[in-house]
């Protein structure tokens, strides 16, 4: 395992930026160990929801965790608004960094992560294989 600390800049799209950082590191497998920061726009799919919820405003990233595979990511985050209300779910493309996002990635160069259809769940689920 190799650790990769990142600071994303204002205007960066969180999910694609993390996927790009893993690709640029020449890796096919990573986990997000920790993430904090702020968003000016959040794109979250709530538990069991079909549609993505898009929120514009000032949000603090309280937690960020997940896996980054060679063909897609599975990220969860919790956010708070200016009244301290907390909301969480799947982080999608369109989570735009407001001031910063500080993220710690664990790169796994000896492994390959892929998302493949799973008959039991009906979703593309994580498949883990040695490199």
From TrEMBL:
Q: What is this protein called?
A: PPC domain-containing DNA-binding protein
One of its Pfam families is PCC
Ordered alphabetically, the record's keywords are: DNA-binding
Q: Does the keyword DNA-binding apply?
A: yes
Please list the coiled coil stretches.
Answer: none
Organism encoding this protein: Roseateles agri
Q: Which GO terms describe its molecular function?
A: DNA binding
Q: Where is the PPC domain?
A: 1-129
């Amino acid at each position: 395992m190799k650790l990769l600390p990142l600071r994303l800049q204002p205007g960066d799209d969180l999910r694609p930026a993390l996927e790009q950082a893993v690709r640029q590191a020449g890796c096919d497998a990573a986990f997000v160990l920790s993430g904090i920061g702020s968003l000016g726009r959040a794109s979250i799919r709530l538990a069991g929801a079909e549609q993505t919820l898009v929120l514009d405003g000032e949000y603090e990233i309280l937690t960020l965790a997940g896996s980054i595979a060679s063909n897609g990511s599975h990220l969860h985050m919790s956010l708070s608004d200016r009244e301290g209300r907390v909301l969480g779910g799947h982080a999608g493309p369109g989570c735009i960094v407001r001031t910063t996002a500080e993220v710690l990635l664990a790169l796994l160069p000896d492994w390959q992560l892929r998302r493949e259809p799973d008959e039991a769940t009906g979703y593309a689920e994580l498949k883990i294989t040695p490199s």
